[in-house]
Amino acid sequence: MSYLLNAVSLLIELAFDAVITLLVVRLLAEACRADFNNPLSQFVYRYTNPVLAPVRRVILNWRRINLAALLLAWLAMLLKRLVLFLIIGVMPHPLGLVLLAFAELLDFLLLFYLVLIFAWSLMSMLAVDRRQPALRLAGSIVEPLLRPLRGKLTAGNIDFSPTVVMVGLLLARMLIAAPLLDLGTRLALVA
User: Fold this and answer.
1) CA-CA distance, 175 to 92, in Å (whole number)?
2) pLDDT tens-digit readout, 67-105
3) Lesser CB count within 10 Å: N end or C end of the chain?
């Protein structure tokens, strides 16, 4: 691939990933009942609601899961992958493209949680104000994953539950998302 195509691919991935990140944060913030008065929550709501509101009229929530946000994140991942394939001159097989988009969204969610748990753990160890909006939002999103292990994996004053959850997320990326990505790629590139 030429240097220009690499640069264009990078810019396309960044643009789509920014949109997908907003949709994923909206999905997880609603599912975890994050504080709506948090300025970051309001920012995410303000910029995702114009796109989500019409879709939510058709696709209702399931329990606390915003299915409209999940669908739009998957469609954005599908469109991103399609554009990247078309840039290199490949027309992907539709079934492979659908599976690849699903696998990439799953991998994106797992990586998002990994980064978020790491950042939240780091910020909570440092002298960061507990009322800081990013720390509050991250804490409310990671808490459901950490809650089952809280207090069970401590040594002194150190809680190892974030480490165990991060190892679990890494294993899920290697054992679930990676094989799905490989299968989706193979199916998408079938002539």
Assistant:
1) 25
2) 999 999 999 999 999 999 999 989 999 999 999 999 999
3) C
